[in-house]
Design a protein that fits this description.
Helix content is 52%, strand content 7%. It has 165 residues and is mainly alpha-helical. It has a two-stranded antiparallel ribbon with strand order 1-2. The chain starts with a strand and ends in an 11-residue tail after the last helix. The mean pLDDT is 81.
């Protein structure tokens, strides 16, 4: 709301603040749930993402094919609205079904595909562990050979080994 104030020869609008004994106008709006534009504030709960199983996708694709075969005007669009999907979903599902069959319609984990499968990752881990153990074995054999040479040079008798160790 505006009032009018004279400024010399000009009349300019002057904002009028509502007098409120409890505090500022902003605090009252927040308490009432009213925004700056005086519209009520509303929070909408975010819906969880929908997932379709492979069986549902096959059913929808077959139903869409039936709608097209019936020749009824608007039947396909009505089916898409009823199912709550876009025509682009139908196009991509048909392409996946044609390329890979019903297994291609299975839901996949979103995000980047892993570089290695679980078996490949385990194989890599075991290969690294094997390399470490081979290196340790090589060092142990070198140390045993060095001890044998030291015993020969010093003329000491080697302790008897059972062959089991």
């Amino acid at each position: 709301m505006y009032g009018w104030a004279e400024n010399g020869s000009h009349i300019v609008p002057k904002p009028i603040h509502e007098s409120d004994p409890s505090g500022s106008a902003e605090s009252q709006r927040e308490q009432r749930g009213v925004g700056v534009s005086k519209a009520t504030l509303e929070t909408v709960v975010k819906r969880p993402r929908r997932f379709f199983s492979a069986a549902e996708k096959v059913r929808i694709v077959k139903e869409a094919d039936g709608c097209q075969a019936s020749g009824k005007r608007g039947a396909l669009q009505a089916m898409l609205r009823r199912e709550g999907i876009y025509s682009s979903h139908l196009v991509s599902w048909r392409a996946q079904l044609g390329a890979q069959g019903p297994t291609g319609l299975a839901t996949k984990k979103p995000g980047r595909k892993p570089k290695f499968t679980e078996a490949e990752r385990r194989n890599e881990e075991l290969t690294k562990r094997n390399a470490v153990l081979e290196r340790k074995l090589h060092i142990a054999n070198a140390l045993i050979a060095l001890q044998k040479k030291a015993h020969e040079i010093l003329g000491l008798a080697l302790p008897e080994s059972d062959g089991d160790t």
